[in-house]
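Sequence design from tokenized structure. All designs in this work follow the same two-part layout: the structure record, then the generated sequence. An example of the structure record is given first.
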């Protein structure tokens, strides 16, 4: 039904904008034969424009982390988004449970219908305070929660755009995400983040990233540069005009 509807509606257009090559390929499989331009969705990134490393933000980061029960020497893996089954958050719980270091915590920011199941799975894996569920947060607080993390993580294979990946990059966070076609235009592996395909690769790349402050800093800086060039609302407008 989705394929038939998409083909019928898009047949009336002169050109179609797809946010990623993954969506373009999906439309092609549906039989859409109109011109399809891949242009990443533009986001309002103004709340991330200031320097993420200034003193005021550093103090706010410490205060928020302490309020969440995170110690100064803890390393925080952050996921922000809807807690739904298709986000594959359960995999992040298994990956966290498999890490030898007890000072690595998983911060799940957001809420959703799958939260109770995830809390039960965390208890079953005996993760205790190594996993923190914040519940729903105010939109104005989103940037502060990104700043509370050390690495943005995601195991989702269902994304079509990955808007939270883009926000995390705008906040200067390096990414470690499950390999997925939607990330082809987002993560440049080894430059602004890393991708993984299995648990062994996840832990190896994570420890490398956490042990190398200069790598995290470099990835974060490059991530911000990539995002503001390609994924801002002004970048979107420029690409559409072109």
């Amino acid at each position: 039904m989705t394929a038939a509807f998409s083909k019928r509606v898009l047949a009336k257009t002169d050109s179609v904008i797809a946010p990623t090559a993954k969506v373009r390929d999906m439309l092609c499989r549906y039989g859409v034969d109109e011109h399809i331009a891949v242009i990443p969705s533009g986001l309002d990134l103004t709340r991330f424009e200031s320097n993420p490393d200034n003193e005021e933000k550093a103090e706010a980061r410490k205060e928020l982390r302490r309020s969440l029960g995170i110690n100064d020497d803890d390393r925080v893996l952050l996921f922000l988004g809807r807690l739904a089954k298709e986000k594959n958050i359960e995999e992040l719980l298994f990956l966290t449970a498999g890490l030898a270091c007890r000072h690595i915590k998983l911060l799940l920011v957001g809420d959703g219908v799958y939260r109770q199941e995830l809390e039960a799975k965390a208890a079953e894996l005996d993760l205790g305070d190594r996993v923190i569920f914040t519940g729903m947060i105010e939109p104005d607080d989103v940037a502060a929660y990104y700043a509370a993390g050390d690495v943005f993580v995601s195991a989702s294979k269902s994304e079509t755009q990955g808007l939270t990946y883009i926000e995390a990059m705008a906040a200067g966070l390096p990414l470690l995400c499950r390999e997925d076609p939607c990330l082809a235009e987002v993560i440049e592996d080894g430059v602004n983040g890393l991708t993984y395909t299995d648990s062994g690769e996840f832990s190896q790349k994570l420890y490398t990233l956490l042990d190398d402050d200069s790598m995290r800093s470099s990835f974060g800086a490059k991530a911000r540069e990539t995002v503001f060039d390609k994924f801002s609302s002004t970048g979107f407008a420029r690409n559409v005009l072109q």
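The radius of gyration is 19 Å. We note this feature because it recurs in several other targets discussed in the main text.
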